[in-house]
Amino acid sequence: MAVEAIAEHTEQGHADGVFHQFESIEQQNESYIVGMWSFLVTEVMFFGPLFFAYLLYRWQFQPQFYLVHKELNVALGGLNTVILLFSSFAVAMAVHFAQKKARQKQLLWLGLTLACAFGFLIVKYFEWAHKFHVGHVPGPGFRWEAAGEAGVVPAGIAELFFSLYFGMTGLHGLHVVIGIICIGTLMLLTARKSKLVESYIPTEMVGLYWHFVDLVWIFLFPLFYLMPQ
């Protein structure tokens, strides 16, 4: 009898859009929000030491880092910044239409966000491909003698700069891939009218994550690409 009662309660909960462990939709939504913000705090703690390490080495090797950073493609970095800024607007619009239960418009803006995410990775691929071609990838095959500033900046410092560059932008790229999976899953569930996304809260949670991904890039772009002399 107890098992049947639990099953009945679970089915009723799913039918109402509330899972059985929550007493109300308000409590469920509050749990989602607290959980997402807690996750984002851990992400800040994850990226924080990397930014601290970069700033420490940049302070120590400012003249050398300035010369090495000129090997980066500012135009491609700027293009990716524009892409992510638009994607933040797009996901905000998706949340807006999710709140209004305008499913088709929500899917449209989620699709635009997804397209921006793929666009970002495509641009990053071409940027990284050039670095592999000229040998600016840290490791045994690192070649700094091919660069114009080779006589001014020691290869070890140049490799340190590119280690930070590939490490931090690569980690950010991994978060973009995770965002693509989240947005794609959300679109699929929304298109199927799943009760899991009946509320606007799941869309808002994905939006918060994507805003965080964009914010990280907003810091990465000026730190690596727009370094003052």
Automatic annotation (TrEMBL):
Coiled-coil stretches noted in the UniProt entry, renumbered to this chain: none
UniProtKB keywords: Membrane, Transmembrane, Transmembrane helix
Membrane-spanning ranges: 32-54, 74-95, 107-126, 146-166, 173-189, 209-227
MF terms in GO: cytochrome-c oxidase activity
Any one Gene Ontology BP term: aerobic electron transport chain
Gene Ontology cellular component annotations, sorted alphabetically: plasma membrane
Major location (coarse): membrane
Protein's name in the database: Cytochrome C oxidase subunit III
Species whose genome carries this gene: Candidatus Nitrosymbiomonas proteolyticus
